[in-house]
Amino acid sequence: MSDSQATSKAQSVETTNQQSAGTTVEGETQEKLRDEWVQYDFDGETAIKTQDVNVHYGDEHALHDISMEIPKNSVTALIGPSGCGKSTFLRCLNRMNDRIKAASVSGEVEFDGKNIYDDGTNLVELRKRVGQVFQSPNPFPKSIRENISYGPRKHGDIDVSLLSRLLGRDDRAEEEELVERCLRQAALWDEVNDRLDDNALGLSGGQQQRLCIARALATDPEVLLMDEPASALDPIATSRIEDLINDLSDDYTVVIVTHNMQQAARISDQTAVFLTGGYLVEYDDTDKIFENPESQRVEDYITGKFG
Ligand SMILES: Nc1ncnc2c1ncn2[C@@H]1O[C@H](COP(=O)(O)OP(=O)(O)O)[C@@H](O)[C@H]1O
Ligand SMILES: [Mg+2]
């Protein structure tokens, strides 16, 4: 990529024109990547900074040299056609790829001044601070209340066991506060406060997904990773999730994968466009990406020419 840095603007236009004659099987033009397209300048603090992240699944090179800085307390959208590595990249941000046997990750992911891939990283702690919400709502087959308090109970932050009560520790009031706070933050409290002991699986899909967001909030994360959190939901439930994400970005850093470009345009502050082969092609303010992208391929993708 360093040769592209040296290339003048005039040359690059020429190159682009020459190359636009050839298209890949996926219908993408073959265009050189340019470092400046992925350098995103913003005001404010950085929540996560990745440096030359590469991911292989066995022989498949799924992500190439991804370097990006994710601003704190804002919404960053990751978009691009299916299979371009969005989920893979998201999983790099709290080492969820560790759980995939075939995956090997290189490069650095800096969070809170440390590379999370350094030896000795406490993964439980990391995933508390960098929480996640999946594509399909996956509440535990437990009560609404227990879904929220599950993490804090597991980590020992809340203890409501009979034994502990006999020994003089009773966190039931803390648990009530936590459950209410998280459900309110996830815009679900008003709908469920009279049935906290009901099984969470009885909720609608949209409510279940908001419950999963509330559950992710219960461990007090700083960053929330969301992989197509609304793709299984109807339009009304989707719009509630979008409003919620917007509200959450006052206090949390949200990184969201979506294949829905309108959604990215509606809810994100900045957008990173990944394209086939696992390349980050352009990263900038969402308005800039959607109104005036630098890359022809990004423009073609956004205007629906492929993907
Ligand atoms: N668990 C896995 N094992 C092997 N290959 C995988 C795995 N997950 C993803 N891949 C491959 O990595 C590439 C990127 O996939 P993914 O990150 O899921 O893309 P996206 O989320 O953009 O659709 C694809 O070619 C996919 O087949
Ligand atoms: Mg995906």
From TrEMBL:
GO terms for cellular component: membrane. The keyword Nucleotide-binding applies. GO terms for biological process: phosphate ion transmembrane transport. Keywords: ATP-binding, Cell membrane, Membrane, Nucleotide-binding, Transport. Residues 48-302 form the ABC transporter domain. One of its GO terms (molecular function) is ATP hydrolysis activity. It comes from the Archaea. Residues 1-27 have a biased composition (Polar residues). The keyword Membrane applies. Residues 1-32 are annotated as: Disordered. CDD domains: ABC_PstB_phosphate_transporter. NCBIfam families: 3a0107s01c2. This is Phosphate ABC transporter ATP-binding protein, PhoT family (TC 3.A.1.7.1).
